[in-house]
Amino acid sequence: MLMLQRRDDPDFWQSVTGSLEEGETASQAAMREVKEEVAIDVASEQLTLIDCQRTVEFEIF
């Protein structure tokens, strides 16, 4: 599991999160989110989708 330390609140850690953009597949979203969050380019052949949940509601504490 990858945890990110928030720049705006160094005491706050969170998992990598993301969402699908319109017309985007889960694999495309995963590649984009990895690039955005940790600046690593990932090829689709390197991905294995284990779980994907669709939701529009979430809370961050």
From TrEMBL:
Signal peptide: none annotated. This is Dihydroneopterin triphosphate pyrophosphohydrolase type 2 (NudB). Its cofactor is Mg(2+). The lineage of its organism: Bacteria, Pseudomonadati, Pseudomonadota, Gammaproteobacteria, Enterobacterales. Pfam families: NUDIX. It comes from the Bacteria. It comes from Citrobacter freundii. Residues 1-28 are annotated as: Disordered. Residues 1-10 have a biased composition (Basic and acidic residues). One of its GO terms (molecular function) is hydrolase activity. InterPro entries: NUDIX_hydrolase-like_dom_sf (IPR015797), NUDIX_hydrolase_dom (IPR000086). Residues 1-61 form the Nudix hydrolase domain.
